[in-house]
Amino acid sequence: xxxxxxxxxxxxxxxxxxxxxxxxxxxxxxxxxxxxxxxxxxxxxxxxxxxxxxxxxxxxxxxxxxxxxxxxxxxxxxxxxxxxxxxxxxxxxxxxxxxxxxxxxxxxxxxxxxxxxxxxxxxxxxxxxxxxxxxxxxxxxxxxxxxxxxxxxxxxxxxxxxxxxxxxxxxxxxxxxxxxxxxxxxxxxxxxxxxxxxxxxxxxxxxxxxxxxxxxxxxxxxxxxxxxxxxxxxxxxxxxxxxxxxxxxxxxxxxxxxxxxxxxxxxxxxxxxxxxxxxxxxxxxxxxxxxxxxxxxxxxxxxxxxxxxxxxxxxxxxxxxxxxxxxxxxxxxxxxxxxxxxxxxxxxxxxxxxxxxxxxxxxxxxxxxxxxxxxxxxxxxxxxxxxxxxxxxxxxxxxxxxxxxxxxxxxxxxxxxxxxxxxxxxxxxxxxxxxxxxxxxxxxxxxxxxxxxxxxxxxxxxxxxxxxxxxxxxxxxxxxxxxxxxxxxxxxxxxxxxxxxxxxxxxxxxxxxxxxxxxxxxxxxxxxxxxxxxxxxxxxxxxxxxxxxxxxxxxxxxxxxxxxxxxxxxxxxxxxxxxxxxxxxxxxxxxxxxxxxxxxxxxxxxxxxxxxxxxxxxxxxxxxxxxxxxxxxxxxxxxxxxxxxxxxxxxxxxxxxxxxxxxxxxxxxxx
Length: 671
Fold this sequence. Notes:
- By secondary structure, this protein is of the alpha/beta class.
- It contains 23 helices and 23 strands.
- The strands form 5 sheets. A 7-stranded parallel β-sheet has the order 13-14-12-15-16-11-17, with helices on both faces. A 6-stranded parallel β-sheet has the order 18-23-22-19-21-20, with helices on both faces.
- Strand 5 and strand 6 form a beta hairpin.
- It is globular, with a radius of gyration of 30 Å.
């Protein structure tokens, strides 16, 4: 068996893992040898030179060695031991007790400990020190593990022994292709037991690079193997459709996107495209043209959106744009049973051309007649498995995903390696929103300014990060009370995700019509909400939001012209990282630039998400390396699949085994 086949075997095969421990491992999600070795050290602690106990005169971090000359308990089972060397005695304290402590620190044992010492009554005292083995002292580096919930009592020393036994079972297979070399056994050994920090970093990067390569190969294979309805449409024909329904000329960027659409849907392969662009760049207009092209040829379209508010808005806009050209229906969780039954009949019969809706579309009872296009707006709100569920229900269908949250190319490749990417960078009618940072202490001065604008009949958004009251940040409930006390004569309302959908829509309609002048909200208004009359926004505890999220929220104002002002209230101190991030937002209106900065300042995070297969995560990659790892992984995956699409060559069989046994990708992407 090769490396990946052995790694997929049960944990019971590992020396030191019996039936009892196997059950405990399984309850923590550790079922295979691969699962064991994937629990990498969370960090590595550099071990200093040994210090004689008698030389410790001040608080600090020390390595000391000696003999345990006494043990005991104090308080409620707190464990204490005394460590002696030729120069003095130190106390060891654990504020709990377990049998293994008495075994490790038993009287007469010789041990080395590393920890923070405090001078108590003239003697150094170590609370919860780390035990340092001779091997750790030799390398000068100690791996620190945080075991999954439920396994803490296994003990770090026992777990390390199990890891060594697991690695000993694995063959030393190697993969080489186009100058890329990878030995999984060598990489795991160096990640768990490095001789120095540089070796640990190199090993982690090797493991992550290979994981990226596997994901990118899966993405490339999925794209190549998905056939779809062939729609022989040219870019000129799509442009003709656009001129027939819109009173404005498409920009050069929009025309380029229509050309990319035409190339996709006429190829016979399933269109899988992400259309990203700023608010107002014309994404929806391009999508409407594509929808009509399918409808004119007798096909049905699903337009999936994340919120009821956005669903109502798109339904209203599509009805206004297409009029009698298409029969459009709206399906949400709030749709009454009679209307839902009517929609289901219309979908099955083919009478409904476009179905706009939310998660209610995942209802298995929906049976489409000729569904051929799935359009997803604000795709980041949906998981991979959710979109795949809908795609699986339309044989030979095409997929268009849209986002107004610009994604740097490297992130897009990581999130959506199976999608082509179209970008609209420019807005035909750009909106300038002036953004300012103010401290909490300036809230009253801010309210005085807003009062003057409200007296002129303007409208104001106030955004809070949380709904309920908390000691840490200003909540929506606290905020609505404050606003009604401060502006008693100005009609105000609140909207948040815990309200019934119909109530949310009603409040927003009142705000849109001008009946409500101040709308106090959570980030529920972040996505797609179109209120042309609002030019003012106040964001409380702004440091609690990501920069891209803040950029999206301020995109809700200034859409009807006029002087648009967004004020960020924060208690982040001058010079802090949080403050610097907010300051960047005040100087930039480029969503792509903001997104890139946000990624670099906050980290990439868990980019694979729960629906994908990555386990190691990108938190170990530096900002500089993130782009190169993703880009090189993509390029190598495309070369390998192009050269050997059936995985018949020896080096490809190594990849094939990894895809099936380690990452367990579906067999339809790997033979």
